[in-house]
Design brief:
With 846 residues, the chain is an alpha/beta fold. The radius of gyration is 33 Å and the shape is globular.
């Protein structure tokens, strides 16, 4: 099936955005009518409505809405859930109908028109309501049969508006392979924008909205073709894979570039794949569509048998947001029923679970479900301790650290039947709060089982969230449990994925690329290079995502093996697709760009263990003969920094000259500013947030200034103070300056720096951690500058070394007027300033 076209995607986006507003407005009105938020039930309610009101209030508390002391009940989370349930039941019903999969209870296929005709006879208010009812019955893992939110009737005007929205979508939308993934993205879009604009720290309530990112199909297929596909080619040599492996990359000898996956099971019945951040199920569905034909061919299974076997044996998924799990379950069910030769029928239970369910009860209330049995009580306590922060931590939770399942504590598997029985007990059915607790507990035990398991392949697009945006609770957890990866949620998830692996298991992730070279991740890189085997890395760079700006998210595709075997000798395969400007061009690049091979030992020997894709990382580095320094950080530039012409005279008792970033890329630039220095004794030096001593080792020495934001550009250093946005490369021996200048001016310098640091703003340390052949560049400098580098010269009056004569200046009239008014440039007044002979001649003539 083809992906959704951009016009259809835009139409879906506008529809889903409108639907969320309508659905939540409708839910809020319906809850208000029942008085769910009020302390007392309204007198107009029937007995059935009163019972539903109690269930809804219990559900609200389970979702995390607050019950106040005066019995008022918050309903914000409940409104969101009810709106979501009603809209998605209608939407999923249309998905089923458009794929000829909507089925009556008696097994007869139905169209939406059939549902309209049957509505009155079946006691439904509309054909859409009836279609939703049938969809709910077909999808028990998506819609709870007893969900109180779905028992709530929406006002007719809201119901008709929602029906119009779902009916207005193009039929092709329901045939596309990626529609369900976009549905969730668009449902969360408004909230995501609100959270980002607020600039508040991200906690449990905000995480699902801000960390979900739809994974491009080419990324999903590339990773699976170079893991599952590679495994097939090794284990079934000479037998064509039943799935076309368009992204499989091989070496010259035909060996898969990602490795042979020798530790994986030889039979797919024993193979287990986990997506711990499964979102809408993109990886799971793609893996399903590979594994079913593979098992049909390898094991002689029919389509129906293979579909059931893959759902039962092979695929596992976790997600922090229950709505994602519902969409993933529906996506898998749809793929199963659509598979040629399979068709609609009840499916085996899927190994999917929400690992972000909240526990609303206190522990003493929670353990009542155990019925007094000590082992079960201890098991319930362990479950409680494991999941009390589940809405914040999700798949980062590791129940094996609590270690349930011994003589004193019931295992999670033992707790599952307990909750199934509890749901049938009259006293539980009669207590709505206890009933919601039992339903939540049943879901959590499934999540705990998956979280406690180990897997052959762990594959996901990890959530991205920098440490500075994390709330304090998340920060504290990460500091304690994933110290090496704490700077970004993505890096913590990489560590967690490897914990999920069996020995010899494989982790494949889509994740940001900046950690491959940033100094703050040095220890994690070193640890992973020492403790894991690196199989394959694809550098995608900017523009990798079709639907968002690639400048926001620059990613890699990474494959690691959880094994130390032959790690030192292991050779990493790398593909650089970062130069391709768009997602479509990267799709082609990952298929055809050159494969680079680098030993893991060589990566360990690289400066700061930075991960580059160059075939040769050897040779002496520039840092052997030069230092790279960063400049002054005032913390308040408007207070301390100005332009030199803003004062009549640059009095060195108050001011120091300050070199800034260039306004244009020319050799002499940035010599425009002054900083209120006050001989090192002023306010600037007393500010706790300022770092005025930065770069002081460079002052008075010759060097090369570097513009390091975006495009790298080098220009002449003015031997004065310099701004924090400027880096200066200072040779340890001044005789090497011409060679260093020639090297830094060459495109080879920018290429070498960008090979190890693709961040927008390059760190100063990176600038000298590149190979530098001193004799080679000394020969070039001798040819270009036999008399040494010329002294800097400028006809630009915005530069402090300007000579002051109007005739050759770039702004003759302005300079002439300034001279008539008695103004003199710093170069004319400062006898210590180093000037070229040409500049001195102009000053003399002035």
């Amino acid at each position: 099936m083809a992906a959704l076209s951009r016009p259809l995607r835009n139409r879906l986006e506008s529809t889903v955005l409108a639907a969320r507003d309508v659905a939540e407005t409708a839910a809020d009105a319906a809850l208000l009518h029942l008085g769910v938020a009020a302390a007392k039930a309204p007198p107009h309610l029937t007995a059935g409505q009163k019972k539903l009101r109690v269930r809804l209030r219990a559900r609200a508390r389970q979702l995390g809405d607050t019950l106040h002391k005066d019995e008022r009940q918050d309903t914000d989370r409940l409104v969101q859930e009810v709106g979501y349930e009603h809209w998605h039941r209608m939407l999923f019903a249309r998905f089923l109908a458009e794929n000829s999969l909507l089925v009556h209870e008696n097994g007869v296929p139905l169209t939406l028109k059939d549902c309209s005709d049957l509505a009155e006879h079946e006691g439904a208010s509309s054909g859409w309501e009836l279609a939703g009812r049938f969809a709910s019955r077909m999808l028990p893992q998506v819609f709870r049969p007893d969900a109180p939110g779905l028992a709530l009737l929406l006002a007719p005007e809201h119901q008709r508006e929602l029906e119009g929205l779902v009916a207005g979508l193009d039929a092709e939308t329901f045939q596309a392979s990626d529609s369900l993934g976009w549905v969730y993205q668009y449902w969360q879009a408004k909230k995501k924008d609100e959270i980002n604009k607020s600039e508040n720290k991200i906690g449990a309530d905000e995480l699902p909205a801000v960390t979900q990112l739809f994974t491009e199909p080419y990324m999903v297929e590339f990773l699976l073709h170079n893991s599952l596909g590679a495994w097939w080619t090794v284990n079934f040599p000479g037998t064509p894979c039943p799935v076309e492996l368009t992204y499989l990359r091989t070496l010259d000898d035909g060996t898969p570039a990602a490795g042979k996956f020798e530790s994986w099971p030889k039979r797919l019945v024993d193979f287990k794949l986990l997506d711990p951040c499964c979102g809408s199920g993109h990886f799971l569905v793609s893996a399903f569509l590979m594994l079913v034909p593979m098992r049909m061919q390898a094991e002689g299974l029919s389509a129906k048998e293979a579909v059931d076997a893959v759902l039962r044996d092979n695929l596992y998924g976790l997600e922090i947001d229950p709505r994602c799990i519902e969409i993933a379950a529906f996506a898998l069910a749809l793929a199963a029923w659509r598979f040629p030769g399979a068709g609609y029928r009840p499916l085996p239970p899927m190994n999917l679970a929400c690992c972000g369910l909240a526990i609303a009860q206190k522990e003493v209330e929670w353990v009542k479900l155990a019925g007094g049995d000590e082992r079960l009580v201890n098991g319930m306590k362990a479950l409680y301790r494991s999941f009390r922060d589940a809405p914040l931590l999700g798949s980062l939770l590791n129940p094996t650290r609590i270690a349930p399942g011994d003589l004193h504590t019931a295992s999670y598997a033992e707790l599952q039947p307990l909750f199934a029985k509890a749901l049938q007990k009259e006293e539980v059915k009669a207590d709505e709060v206890l009933l919601e607790a039992a339903i939540t507990a049943q879901g959590l035990t499934k999540a705990a089982e998956i979280l406690s398991g180990t897997y052959d392949l762990v594959i996901t697009n990890v959530p991205y969230l920098r440490r500075g945006k994390q709330d304090e609770k998340l920060k504290a957890f990460c500091e304690e449990n994933y110290q090496l990866g704490k700077n970004d949620l993505a890096n913590m998830f990489l560590e967690r994925c490897l914990e999920f692996n069996k020995e010899g298991g494989v982790t494949q992730v889509v994740m940001p690329q900046n950690w491959l070279f940033l100094t703050s991740y040095k220890k994690q890189r070193e640890s992973l290079l020492k403790e894991q085997r690196w199989n394959l890395i694809v550098r995608l760079g900017s523009g990798a995502f079709d639907a968002i700006s690639g400048e926001v998210v620059n990613v890699i595709l990474l494959t690691l093996t959880h094994s130390k075997l032959e790690r030192e000798k292991f050779v990493l395969s790398g593909i650089d697709a970062s130069e391709a400007p768009s997602a479509s061009e990267k799709t082609a690049a990952v298929k055809s760009n050159q494969i680079v091979r680098i030993t893991q030992h060589a990566l360990l020997q690289a400066p700061d263990c930075r991960i580059g894709l160059e075939s040769s990382l050897g040779g002496p580095l520039l840092e052997r003969v030069a230092d790279a320094l960063v400049g002054i950080q005032t913390s308040d530039d408007p207070m301390f920094v100005g332009a030199f012409w803003e004062v009549g005279h640059v009095d060195r008792r108050t001011w120091e000259l300050l070199q800034s970033t260039p306004d244009e890329f020319v050799d002499v630039a940035g010599l425009t500013c002054i900083v209120r220095w006050e001989q090192g004794r002023g306010i600037l030096h007393r500010l706790a947030t300022a770092y005025p001593s930065k770069g002081r080792k460079a002052v008075g020495r010759s060097g090369v200034a570097v513009h390091r934001m975006g495009a790298l550009f080098v220009y002449r250093y003015g031997k004065e103070r310099f701004h924090q946005n400027v880096a200066v490369i200072v040779p340890t021996d001044e005789k090497h300056l011409p060679a260093i200048w020639c090297f830094c001016r060459d495109p080879a310098f920018q290429g070498a720096v960008r090979a190890i640091d693709q961040t927008l703003k390059v760190t100063n340390a990176t600038l000298v951690q590149v190979p530098f052949n001193l004799p080679h560049w000394e020969r070039i400098a001798a040819d270009l500058y036999p008399d040494g580098l010329p002294t800097p010269y400028s006809d630009d009056p915005t530069q402090w070394i300007f000579h002051g004569h109007p005739q050759p200046s770039t702004a003759s009239l302005q300079v002439a007027v300034a001279r008539l008014l008695g103004y003199h440039w710093p170069a004319e007044l400062d006898t210590k300033m180093e000037l070229s002979d040409e500049a001195r001649a102009w000053i003399k003539r002035s």
